[in-house]
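Human: Respectfully, please carefully check these C-alpha cells:
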Amino acid sequence: MSSLVRLVQNEQMKIYSRFRTWVMLAIVVLSVISAGVLSRFVIGMGISHTLPFMYLATSLTSIVTIFTVIIAGDIVASEFTWGTIKLLLIRPASRGKILCAKYISVLLFILTLTVMLLIISYFTGLLIFGLGGAVSPDMSFPAILKTYGLKLVQIVMTATLAFMISAAFRSSSLAIGLSIFLMLSSNTIVLVLMSLKKTWVKYFLFANTDLSPYLSGGKPLLPGMSLGFSVTVLVAYWILFYAVSWLLFTKRDVAGN
C-alpha cells in the first residue's frame, strides 16, 4: 500500500508540475468570477443570495469534465509519447499498480477541481450577492451538493472512457478528442436513436449518466429504465473500461516504444 501511495504522489507531482494544469485551475476560477459578474452587473438575473449563484455555477462542471478528460486522456499515453514508459516500468511496482496510481490521480484531480469550483462559487457569491435574499428549497446547500454528486457521476464516467482510450491506443489526441466529441454529441445521438425507435439506446453509456430524473421525480428516457438499471449499466461500463485499460497496459509489450 505504501508503494501505491508513493506512486500516486509521483503522478500528482507530474500533473501539477505542468503549466497547463495551473492554466486549467486559473480558468475555473476566472469562469466562476466572470459568471458572477455577468449575472449581477450585465444580465441582471435577479439573484439576491449566494446559494442560487452556487446552484447556477454547477453548470460550470462541464469545464471540469473537459479538463479532466485532457488529464485522463494524456496520463498514460504521454508516457509512450515521451518514451518515459520504460523508466516507469523498471520500478519494482507492478504494471497494475502503476495503472491504478494513474487512475487514482485522475480521480483526485476530478475531486480537486470540483471542490475548488464549489469553494470559489461560494466566496464569489458571497462577495457579489451576499446572504440577504430568500432561497428556494431547490437551491439549498444540500440540493447543491446533490447536484455536484450527480455531475460527478458523469465526469468520472467520461474521464474513465478517456483513460481507457489513452491506455488502449497510446494516443493522447485520440483519447481527448474522441471523449470530448462523445461528451458534446451524446445527447444528440441519444435523441436521434430514440426518434428512430431504437430501444437498445437505453444501454448506451451516455443515456444513463444523468441520474437526476430518477431523484427529482422526472421520467426516464425510455420505458424499462430505472435508477437501478442505470446504475447497473454504469457499473458494467466502468468495469469494462478499467478492465480493458488494465489488460492492454499490463499485457502488451512496450519494447518497441
Q: What stands out?
A: Residues 6 and 101 are 9 Å apart (CA to CA). The longest helix spans residues 95-128. The chain has a mean pLDDT of 87. The chain has one domain: 2-251.
